[in-house]
Amino acid sequence: MYKIDSAQNRIAPLEARRFGELGFSERKHLQEWLENCPQVLAQGEGEELLIIQKEFDGFDDTRERLDLLAIDKEGNLVIIENKLDDTGRDVVWQALKYAGYCANLSKAQVVDIYQRYLNQKAQETGQPPASAEDNLVEFLEVDGLEAAQINRIKTQRLIFVAARYRKEVTNTVLWLSQFGIACQCFKVTPYQAGEELFLNVEQIIPTPESSEFMIGMVAKEDEEKSADTEQKQRHTLRLAFWEQALEAFSQSNCTLYNNISPAKDHWLSAGSGISAMPYQLIFGKNEIRVGLSLQNGQAEANQFVFDRLNENREKIEEAFGDSLDWLPLPNKKACRIQYAKPVDGDDKANWPEMIRWLVDHMTRLENALREPLKVINQQLKLATLPEVEVSDA
After folding, report:
1. Of 96, 64, 75, nearest in space to 173 by CA
2. Which end of the chain is more exposed for a tag (fewer CB within 10 A), N or C?
3. What is the pTM of this model?
4. CA gap 225, 41 in Å, rounded
């Protein structure tokens, strides 16, 4: 830190000092400064902290004291641990214990803790105490306390304040941050210029530049976890649906799926007599479908089969009993012929009807395509197509 001499147009370094050298103590000075000026720890844009207790010892079965307890604009409790010239080795463990204690505090308990703090301040000044509830409503900018979300699960924050940080402390704080635990480290340095004293407060973890990145990474991780959970739920749902569907097929006249096992995918395939061109059942959130998927590795083979079937389109649809969707997909290797029905697939009450529909329409589709596919399979064997695998079925 430098002092500007405007008259000489020069800057001169200020002398960095230690708190102990200046006669400052942790509890009487540093803690008092932070209590009465918490904005020095609110360095993010729009950030603001409200101190709601100091030297808090309201933990069951322990005599430990939390230096400062605050609340942020989101209603999250903030545990503030102050150390003077050195953090020591155990400051992170100490703060984590306090966070664990505070995690169980209800909204009513938080209000009571804050009211006791305000009562104590009032005794010191001789003024009537302010209302904790009114102060919180104003600070959180809500219509009433009942609308405020205070101390939600997994929202507790940790703030460390010290002149110097040991490596084991900074490494642990960085590691905790990877698990979504909001941790900040502020480095405080006293400076002296003659009789004047100055205090520099600098956030070192996370650096202001990396804060946005870290917030983004945490949000991305939450999104990925949510997607993983959704996927697992979908897999479980599909497995249960296919088990019921295959049981129904085994009792029907359609034998395509007699040797097929239930799967976690949204489709089930069965052979059509032509390699890599299976019949498919589709189970989606909003749709069920029966179809023939022409997905041979050679696009020419798919197009060949699709064109031959399309030449018999009128007879096939007459045998099926309805118009089919013919999807040549010219810019892709695969082609499809399908028939779909909109459904609410997540509602298990709909499954019996959906399964009856799949059994009925796959039976009709197989009957409509069985003879045309036999003829086309023979034509494939004679067609001049590069490396097309055909079946003798």
Report:
1. 96
2. C
3. 0.56
4. 31
Q: Would you say 27 and 194 are in contact if contact means Cβ atoms under 8 Å apart? A: no
Burial class of residue 178 (count of CB atoms within 10 Å of its CB; 0-12, 13-18, 19+): exposed
Which pair of tokens denotes residue 297?
């590795």
Q: Which residue has the tokens 């973890």?
A: 205
| DSSP state at residue 261 | P
Extended beta strands in the chain, E state:
2-5, 10-13, 15-16, 49-56, 66-72, 77-82, 157-162, 182-193, 196-205, 267-270, 279-283, 287-294, 325-327, 335-342
State the Cα–Cα distance between residues 134 and 41, nearest whole angstrom: 24
Q: Are strands 157-162 and 77-82 parallel, antiparallel or unpaired?
A: parallel
Contacts of residue 346, defined as CB under 8 A and 6 or more positions apart, other chains included, come to 237, 285
Give the position of tokens 């400052």: 24
Angle, CA 293 vertex, CA 351 and CA 274 arms, to 5°: 120
